[in-house]
DNA sequence: CGTCATTTTGAGGTATTTCAACGAAGGTGG
DNA sequence: CCACCTTCGTTGAAATACCTCAAAATGACG
């Protein structure tokens, strides 16, 4: 829920402005270049922000989970496309409606600033992750990143993976095959066990060691 | 100057809060992990935000030029180190002094929001750039990125390059040698001519073609 | 003008990518 | 309920591109 970081008053303010929308799996919320009318906050579920390159390749810039804000615009247009990975609930707010509210409630503006700052840090984190040379290292860091978004899974060592290998590849800047091979290696060495849309950490110390460095 | 996007009143507000500081070339403004007391805005000059990895490698997360804001914190500490590439003028604002001002001037908060949003877009742009397989492609995109920061140089085809090859390598996620070779190739093909801390575009269409795709 | 750092150039090693084919899974319709 | 089909995932072998190590050349600066 979006209430995690907000006061009750702010919740009311936002609730009055925002519309709750349900997005089906694989549904595209908006496309790169479309007029940017809304900003969004992810309630439940997961989405990806991606970009199709002239070469035909696709790059996933970010995965969005609960409480993540998205809908960045440049010159009034979205800079990348957003698609739901599974059935997802979002809250959307008209861009022009947001400004007057921020004028009245600077505290809320501060919250947004914090959120975008968080997004920026996350983006830099991804840059560091993709900078690694080895595919297994990248995948290991990716798994740990996913785990941070599933606080409940920390205890049970289970990691939810709503995205496909192909999407992981587009995010980690690897080929689909390399992701598969890296996963195979982690499984062969009994570090992680992969199931349908989820992973289970078997040997955390070793996972940490593989994910570390670089 | 920072006045580009601000109203006169906002300039006054900020001027009253901010301290003008001069940073010598190679001087480190702050280090990763240090208590984050200030946020900064680059006036004149150029800086780099970097991070030293356990492996000994160094990653440059971003280059900062005129009007760029930096000084992101996480839990009250800077997340990366910042060093000046040459003599640079910055304006710094105490973090605790900023909050009350934003409360009084939501418009200013909006400006900050826009700035951070811009940073985020730039970070994603870098992700796309580093995603390219070929070193020459990455370097070509990098040159075009630099050109966007030197609006005056667009006409004369000159690009200022305050950073060293090594720093470019750490930014593009390449080895220093690869950057050198990529530059050599661009020079050999008469696409770009490199001088001391600057580059001149000879054949823009071809540079665009090399930078395009991926 | 000498010293030191930066940059360039060369050759070999290693990682991922690519191309190709196989196997598995999930959804659809008969 | 099963067969079919499309999508996704896995595995293998060769090619490409960068990385590493090493040494020479260039440039910066006192």
CATH architecture of the largest domain in chain A: Sandwich
* Assembly classification: homodimer
Give me the secondary-structure category of chain A: alpha+beta
Binned, the helix content of chain A reads 40-55%
Largest sheet of chain A: 4 strands, antiparallel
Could you name the ranges of chain A where pLDDT drops below 50 across 5 or more consecutive residues? Answer: none
Strand order of the largest sheet of chain A: 1-10-3-6
Characteristics:
homodimer; 214 residues; alpha+beta; Jelly Rolls; Arc Repressor Mutant, subunit A; four-stranded antiparallel β-sheet; 8 helices; 13 strands; 44% helix; globular; DNA-binding
How would you describe this structure to a colleague?
The structure is a homodimer of 214-residue chains. Chain A has 214 residues and is an alpha+beta fold. The first copy, chain A, has two domains: 3-126, Jelly Rolls (Sandwich), CATH 2.60.120; 131-212, Winged helix-like DNA-binding domain superfamily/Winged helix DNA-binding domain (Arc Repressor Mutant, subunit A, Orthogonal Bundle), CATH 1.10.10.10. Chain A contains eight helices and 13 strands. The first copy, chain A, has helices spanning 8-17, 95-104, 106-131, 135-149, 153-156, 165-172, 176-188, 204-211, and strands spanning 19-23, 28-30, 38-44, 47-52, 58-64, 69-70, 73-74, 77-78, 81-84, 88-94, 158-160, 192-195, 198-201. In chain A, the strands form four sheets. Chain A has a four-stranded antiparallel sheet. A four-stranded antiparallel sheet of chain A has the order 2-9-4-5. Chain A has a three-stranded antiparallel sheet with strand order 11-13-12. In chain A, strand 4 (47-52) and strand 5 form a beta hairpin. In chain A, helix 4 packs across helix 7 (176-188). The longest helix of chain A is centred in the middle third of the chain and has 26 residues, at 106-131. Chain A binds chain B through residues 51, 53-55, 57, 59, 61-62, 72, 74, 79-80, 99, 102-107, 109-110, 112-113, 116-117, 119-121, 123-124, 126-128, 130-131, 173, 212-214, and chain B through 51, 53-55, 57, 59, 61-62, 72, 74, 79-80, 99, 102-107, 109-110, 112-113, 116-117, 119-121, 123-124, 126-128, 130-131, 173, 212-214. Chain B binds a DNA duplex (30 and 30 nucleotides) through residues 133-135, 164-166, 174-181, 183-184, 196.
